[in-house]
Amino acid sequence: MTEILLGKQIGSGATANVYECGHGKVCKLYAPNTGSAEYEYLKMKEAYDLGIPVPQPYELIEIDNRRGIIMEHISGHSLMEILMNHLAFCFENQMSNHEIFISDVIQGQIKTVAATLADFHAHTCSLQETDKIALSNGCKYNTYLSKSEKAKVMDLIAKLPDGNSLIHGDPNPGNFIVQNGTIRVIDWNNCVNGNFMYNIAEYVLTMRYANVSIALPEPAFHFITEYQNDFSKVFLTEYTKLTNRDLSALEQWTLPILVSKLNGNNPPQKQEKILADVKILLSSL
After folding, report:
1. Arithmetic mean of pLDDT over the chain
2. pLDDT, position 172
3. Of 208, 189, 205, which is closest to residue 197 (Cα–Cα)?
4. Would you say 276 and 208 are in contact if contact means Cβ atoms under 8 Å apart?
5. 170-191 burial by CB neighbour count: b if 16+ within 10 A, else e?
6. Could you tell me the CA-to-CA distances from 162 to 132, 133, 159, 170 in Å, in that order?
7. Contact 274, 266 (CB under 8 A)
8. Which residue from 33, 95, 97, 254 puts its CA 20 to 30 A from 2's CA?
9. What angle (nearest 5°) sits at the alpha carbon of residue 81, between those of residues 115 and 195?
């Protein structure tokens, strides 16, 4: 195992920090006593071997009882950063929300995500963890639902269509990085083997809760709130055009994914909104 000298911290999340370690590489170092490093390393390697634009994973390491991954350093700006910079420019120039939404930057971003996911879903993979396993675990270990409510959700999960596509698991704009004019995708810890609709529903739900997911300046909050459903419509239209896939099963995935999201590290307002929506959907069963 290579001796690693950690440099500047350049990223952080709920379970891991990312450090520079020289020679065009970074180290994603997880919290102590978690198996996430091994999980993500194997998933990244599978994706990389398939030709998916992920950071190249080099090796697993351990530092002070913390497991980590040495991987290629992806430098650039995320689609989220580009979006927020574009919104700031548009607001400064007093553009209307409609003018902003139809701008090339916004439309291009949505279509880029659709095209990237379409490419992922054209690949089959052999990961042991499937979408149904991930969703079942999200339901099983949920602390917000009663036993009878969990049983209803588990029944829905069992009825979801199978698949063997490569599923990223967290297709939010912050995980799509523009590097030298091309898209690279990071954060593969939630990657699974499964039905393409899992990713499609994930993106739609990401947009549905976008206005309560991060702190936004007031003009950006109002823009996202007004157009979050339109983001999804453009995405679904573009994905259908590229793949000719049937997306009519979208609503089947909504409740199981929302239940799983309740286990995430959500801001309080987002958590409350998701829980309220989960209860409404459960009451309709």
Report:
1. 93
2. 92
3. 205
4. no
5. bbbbbbbbbeeeebbbbbbbbb
6. 8, 11, 9, 19
7. yes
8. 33
9. 35
